[in-house]
Write a structure and sequence with these properties.
Number of helices: 13
Strand order of the largest sheet: 1-2-6-3-7-8-9-10
Radius of gyration: 20 Å
Number of strands: 10
Order of helices and strands: HHEEEEEEHEHEHHHHHHEHEHH
Shape: globular
Strand content: 5-15%
Distance between the termini: 27 Å
Structural class: alpha/beta
Number of domains: 1
Largest sheet: 8 strands, mixed
CATH topology: Rossmann fold
CATH class: Alpha Beta
Length: 402
């Protein structure tokens, strides 16, 4: 469900880095969002105007930040839409640098000569509506010149896909050769194929369900509470707080909880065992287990590149996901899909287990692998779709050849 920092594998031996991240938590910015005046990096921007939402509200003057690679063909028939996971953004390829806190999150799958070959395809990656890296979201300025914060209207997966569709129209793309996404991005890809069947030639849904289950909503709910319970959250009005006085503890805690959903017991047990990160035995007081430092490292680093309000907005949009809502149920919604499809699940995924991918695959008529999903066997759990580049890329290559 996550992107760059969950696919990074900070080793257990990284003791000083993890401790330094822990000590620096008090100096983290109030928000890790991209703000007006920050370096744009490789981002470009498109304004799509007002957007009517499922809630009945209208979000004015929506802006979408995006990046692209390759060249759009004269026939405009080689565009691929790549949709990111919860804490991702448009920076699929490229180094970290001004405007980009982390390096691109899928360089093993997208790029020259890769499965999604930018020498052949025009690859477009927008930051999601409600995100915090340039697209309209809680950290963006509302019409009154103050950040939206918690005032941003509730957003659903369908709202976000509607924004992506408006963005595609602004680019002059009427039909995508493929729409590809994992985790939350997989929800978007699936919704694209249901909402706009004629606009999607191929669809890849990686590690995502047809609808968010009660169990998944429960896992998300404790993360939401962790953010809101931070006294510095201040009802979402923390953007002017000095460094170190934003809701960093709550956001870091939510991130640590999420990491336990994304990875597996086998990986954590084999990688860290019962080792500790200092000369002091944790059982004797003063020491810390290596796995604790690993979670702290990722939690504290996360606060420097993400926004607490965006985390709430996007997590709640994932909770809204149900392709069958208002359409007669999941099977009826799946029957709308015309695209050649790839549905991939991970045998060790404890966040979005295989049952969801099996339900999707069983309801599709034009899957490249029949009525059962592709099952990726990996110890990396949910994050395997970001890490197992050879296996994932191989299946995407087959889809693009269909």
């Amino acid at each position: 469900m996550d992107w760059q920092t969950t696919s990074e594998t900070a080793p257990a031996s990284v003791v000083p880095e993890a401790r330094a991240a822990h000590q620096l938590a008090s100096r983290a910015p109030a928000t890790g969002a991209w703000r007006e005046g920050d370096p744009e990096g490789d981002r470009r921007f498109v304004r799509v105007g007002a957007l009517a939402l499922e809630s009945g509200e209208v979000l004015p003057d929506v802006r979408v930040a995006y990046e692209s690679w390759g060249r759009l063909s004269p026939a405009r028939d080689n565009a691929i839409l790549v949709l990111h996971a919860l804490t991702g953004d448009s920076h699929v390829l490229g180094p970290a640098g001004p405007g980009h806190a982390s390096a691109g999150w899928w360089p093993g799958v997208v790029g020259p000569g890769r499965a999604i070959d930018t020498g052949r395809w025009f690859v477009v990656a927008p930051n999601v509506l409600g995100g915090c890296q340039g697209t309209t979201g809680p950290a963006s300025l509302a019409p009154d010149g103050i950040e939206w914060g918690a005032r941003l209207p509730s957003l659903t997966i369908r709202d976000q896909v509607a924004a992506q569709a408006a963005f595609a129209r602004e680019l002059g793309i009427d039909r995508f050769a493929a729409v590809i996404g994992g985790s939350m991005g997989g929800m978007h890809a699936l919704e694209w194929a249901v909402s706009f069947p004629g606009a999607v030639q191929r669809m890849a849904v990686l590690a995502a369900p047809p609808a968010t289950t009660a169990d998944q909503i429960a896992l998300n709910s404790v993360q939401l509470d962790a953010v809101r319970s931070d006294p510095a959250f201040d009802g979402g009005a923390y953007y002017d707080a000095p460094d170190g006085e934003g809701p960093n503890r709550g956001l870091a805690l939510a991130r640590r909880m999420a990491m336990l959903n994304y990875r597996t017991p086998n990986e954590l047990n084999q990688r860290f065992e019962r080792s500790w990160q200092s000369g002091l035995d944790p059982l004797g007081g003063g020491g810390r287990f290596a796995v604790e430092s690993y979670l702290d490292f990722h939690g504290n680093r996360f606060t420097r590149r993400f926004d607490a309000n965006s985390y709430l907005t996007l997590t709640e949009s994932m909770n809204s996901h149900d392709i069958g809502r208002g359409r007669g149920g999941v099977p009826a919604a799946l029957a709308r899909i015309e695209a050649h499809s790839l549905v991939l699940g991970i045998d060790s995924d404890r966040y979005f287990p295989l049952a969801g991918q099996r339900e999707i695959a069983a309801g599709l008529g034009r899957s490249i692998h029949g009525r059962d999903p592709v099952v990726l066997r990996s110890d990396y759990g949910h994050d395997a779709f970001l890490i197992e580049d050879q296996a994932v890329g191989g299946w995407i290559s087959r889809l693009l050849a269909a």
